[in-house]
Write a structure and sequence with these properties.
Helix 8 packs across helix 9 and helix 15 packs parallel to helix 17. Helix 12 links the parallel strand 3 and strand 4. This protein starts with a helix and ends with a helix. It is an alpha/beta fold. A five-stranded parallel sheet has the order 2-3-4-1-5, with helices on both faces. 51% of the residues lie in helices and 7% in strands. The chain has three domains: 147 residues, no CATH class; 174 residues, Rossmann fold, CATH 3.40.50; 70 residues, Winged helix-like DNA-binding domain superfamily/Winged helix DNA-binding domain (Arc Repressor Mutant, subunit A, Orthogonal Bundle), CATH 1.10.10.10. The radius of gyration is 29 Å and the shape is flat. Bound molecules: adenosine-5'-triphosphate (ATP) and magnesium ion.
Length: 451
């Protein structure tokens, strides 16, 4: 449920701008007028001031004086609606600054429920629940681009499943989470699963862990009693040339006495195309759930939701929207959005140190603009930054020759002089002529590749 305050302030709820209009500060600012807010679905809250239970209540619940100033028309229109103000963020307080950074950290798992992934989580939960209720093994394949909340959502479902099993008095399935990036070799996945069933070492004899699992799931006497929820994350790492490990893994759920509820998570978009047809032919096609890239509204919603643990406002709403728009247009990667927000907080923090102003303030559109331009650099800038130091210096020498000396062409000798000059002024030993001409050739090849 949006709060009155968020309905008043949230750009996402208050405006429904066109997806294309919007990346300039002015264009974005223009949209956030009270008029637009009144057109939003929440407009009833704005157009009936007398209905507000908060009428006449000012910040922190104190009686509120209505301003008669013509400049404060917004206040006159909505004054009675503004919820008690939150305490102001004091960014100079290290504990508060730390709390903000933590809320935005990618490793911080939101303690409350997840927003924007309800449908996907419900589908995964229903799948697991059906397996437990029917006491039946099955497999699920979750795919989607990076940073779309796959790992987070599946972990939340795991917790929910165990709460549900407790509530209804069913046996909670045991669980095993494997991140394939940590496996020494792809087939280690089978020993990890086998280990969870706590099979005594001798029991397997000369059989490989995969064969032991296959044999265990084929006979009623050897089948384990309890179901095992196996979450295989970063499954892309299991791709071998013949995809045998992937096939064998999913096939484990097809044995008559299998106890595995298998959830594979991957972000290779085409992984499904490469291994699902074979599984289908083996009559073992997993249920597939795709996590789509986050939209701008979802990104803004998630950021605001994560910040709700704080008592104070940290960002100007417009700043959050700007970040959401840019990230959604580029990739819809929530990890990137959180990184940009943290970077904007750092920009704000560094300016705070430089200024003598003791005012509090919040992270603004301008701070976000700087943070975004650090992350979304033009391709050409990124390519230059990736070049070795001396090649970058050759480019500086070229720029010097063409821009400052206003020349249209130059010789290798002249360019070398300019390069040596730059090396001297930056106290970096210059490379010899042979290496210099090699560097020029490499650079020229790069330009041909990316004209
Ligand atoms: N709905 C959400 N609510 C809150 N935070 C989210 C949400 N979705 C993603 N995040 C955050 O975004 C980051 C990336 O999420 P997650 O690791 O789940 O993505 P992923 O889809 O598994 O990415 P990858 O394919 O790279 O493994 C995490 O820090 C996570 O906390
Ligand atoms: Mg993940």
């Amino acid at each position: 449920m949006p709060t009155l305050r968020s309905a008043t302030l949230s750009p996402v709820q208050a405006a429904t701008p066109s997806p294309t209009a919007a990346t300039t500060p002015r264009a974005a600012k223009r949209r956030f007028t009270p008029r637009r807010a009144a057109e939003s679905p929440d407009s009833a809250q704005f157009t009936a001031p007398h209905m507000s239970p908060l009428a006449g209540v000012g910040p922190m619940g104190t009686p509120k004086m209505l301003s008669a100033s013509p400049k404060s028309s917004r206040k006159r229109l909505y004054g009675d609606f503004v919820a008690p103000q939150k305490p102001k963020w004091n960014p100079r307080d290290p504990a508060q600054m730390q709390a903000v950074k933590e809320a935005l950290h990618v490793a911080t798992v939101p303690s409350c429920g997840l927003v924007c992934r309800d449908e996907e989580q419900s589908r995964v939960f229903d799948f697991c629940k059906a397996c437990v209720q029917q006491d039946k093994a099955a497999s699920l394949y979750v795919c989607g681009c990076p940073g779309t909340g796959k790992t987070l959502s599946i972990n939340k479902v795991k917790e929910r499943l165990s709460r549900w099993a407790d509530e209804v008095g069913m046996e909670t399935p045991d669980d095993l989470s494997i991140n394939c990036t940590n496996l020494g070799s792809t087939s280690d996945i089978f020993s990890k699963i086998l280990g969870k069933f706590q099979v005594r070492k001798k029991a397997g004899g000369k059989l490989s862990p995969l064969q032991q699992l296959q044999s265990m799931f084929s006979h009623k006497e050897s089948a384990p009693g309890r179901m095992l929820l196996v979450i295989v994350d970063e499954m892309d790492y299991l791709i071998t040339r013949d995809r045998a490990v992937l096939h064998d893994l999913f096939m484990l759920t097809t044995h008559q006495f299998s106890r595995c509820i298998l959830i594979g998570i991957a972000n290779s978009i085409d992984l499904a195309d490469r291994f699902l047809p074979k599984l289908e032919s083996l009559n073992c096609k997993p249920l597939v759930i795709t996590f789509r890239a986050y939209s701008k509204d979802q990104i803004a919603n998630i950021i605001n939701h994560r910040l709700k643990v704080l008592e104070y406002d940290v960002f100007e709403p417009l700043a959050v929207e700007f970040c959401a728009r840019k990230v959604a247009a580029a990739s819809g990667d929530m990890r990137k959005a959180l990184g940009v927000c943290r970077s904007a907080v750092e920009v704000f923090e560094s300016r705070l140190h430089d200024s003598s102003d003791q005012g509090f303030g919040v992270v603004t559109f301008d701070h976000m603009d700087i943070a975004l331009s650090k992350v979304f650099k033009p391709v050409v800038v990124n390519s230059i930054l990736c070049l070795p130091q001396h090649q970058q210096m050759v480019l500086c020498a070229l720029a010097n020759t063409f821009q400052h000396c206003k020349k249209k062409a130059t010789t290798l000798g002249e360019l070398n002089k300019s390069y040596i000059e730059i090396c001297r002024s930056s106290q970096v030993p210059a490379v010899g002529m042979l290496e210099f001409s090699n560097m020029c050739m490499i650079l020229s090849d790069q330009v041909c590749k990316h004209p």
